[in-house]
Amino acid sequence: MGNLVINGVASSNGGTFDDVIVNGKGTVNSEIQCKSLESNGIAVFKGNIVSQNATINGTATFHGSLSSKSMEVSGSAKFLDDVLAENLRVSGNARFDGKVKGTEILLEGNVSVAGDCEAEEINIHGTVKMEGELNAEKIEMNPLWRCFIREMGGQQITVKKVNSISNWLKPFMPTGLKVDSIEGDDIVLEMTTAKVVRGARVKIGPKCEIDLVEYQDTFEKDSSAVVKEYRKI
Amino acid sequence: MDEDLISKKDLLEQTGISYGQLYRWKRKNLIPEDWFIRKSTFTGQETFFPRERILERIEKIQAMKENLSLDALAEMFAPGGGKRISKADILKRGIASDFVLNFYIEQTQAQEQAFPFEEVLAIFLLEKLLHGGEISLEEGKMLVGLLQDAEKSFATEGTNVWLIRKFGVSTCFLTKKAEDILFDREAKVIVNLDLMELSAELKEKWL
């Protein structure tokens, strides 16, 4: 099928390719269908993209939707439309203006999502801001700095303090998760501020501030946590 | 359109499902997103559902869950999995009679021996209406034309097919997520069918 390679400063139309590689400063003006997409320089993609593998190392802006079997963002990327990636890993900066949907998602950098985010399993070790709903079977989160998620829902939801070398920096960094509501079957929280937490088995750990907990089976609370109101339903 | 609503909490209590299940079904699109209605209450934001539709849907999911995987279920509630259905299958499963099937083939001049889901839905619709005696053959032709002109993905949530008559003259059309429709006094609504419900009914023929 042939490749599309941009090495200098250039713009091109889209099409169907094996590999698409942008190394310099490139603009692709229309839709792309490819096996692999690699963007190392400064790239702008104006059409929708369907690919098998996508790797974004430099700075990239996607005006259309992107769907890929796997995607890795290590640079800085901006997605103006929806993103569907079975395996998604972000270790750099990413801004998603639409929805994000995946099977396994790992967010390690600084990520913001304006729409809803769905996955079977999501791991967050970093800073996130999610204006929509985060819905996953399993959510594991170690917040770094200030994180915000409007709503979280799923089966198993765990928010824990990160254990790493950077811990000695911690006293200087206001860290924690702020969330409007959390709903799940098994919920374990640390360093979380929430208006409502609803679940079957709820465990509220240190540094939590919860306005209302509604639980079905069990409720545990660390002595240092603040829970204004809790009730069994 | 004011429908009776049920809060998420009451729904869970009444049906015995868990948050995990509800969110899983939402992810799998077993429950359409626009059934999640957000409202501000004195305790903050709460989610409500159209009571009748959600209870019926959950009952169906629970009943079918035992012999179908979640993905198979998701396919059942979402339109067309890209599978083609043969003429023989249509007759055998009682989707349409010989007469209606031949009428459809005559109208569309279809050459194939098998049909995609959307076309089978159109055939099923025709069977229902022609055999119910609600519409005439002429009107049937019109409906076939309408569904052919519609986009392939016409059988999405909230799409209704209408046929109205006034002084014996009829016309038909599709509406998508229409809230209120007002006709003049003399117009008579002959057909108003929710295509999603019809497609669920059609899919049950396979169970």
Into which percent range does the helicity of residues of chain A fall?
A: under 10%
Which oligomeric form is depicted? heterodimer
How would you describe the shape of chain A? elongated
State the order of secondary-structure elements of chain B, H for helix, E for strand: EHHEEHHEHHEHHEEEH
Lateral arrangement of strands in the main beta sheet of chain B: 1-3-2
Give the helix/strand class of chain B.
Answer: alpha+beta
Which range best describes the helical content of chain B: under 10%, 10-25%, 25-40%, 40-55%, 55-70% or over 70%?
40-55%
- What fraction of residues of chain B sit in β-strands? 15-25%
> How many β-strands of chain A, per DSSP?
20
Unreliable runs of chain B, pLDDT <50, ≥5 residues?
none
Order of helices and strands of chain A: EEEEEEEEEEEEEEEEEEEE
Strand content of chain A: over 45%
Please give the largest β-sheet of chain A.
Answer: 20 strands, parallel
Q: Whole-Å distance between the termini of chain B?
A: 33 Å
DSSP summary, beta strand count of chain B? 8
Sheet/helix structural class of chain A:
mainly beta
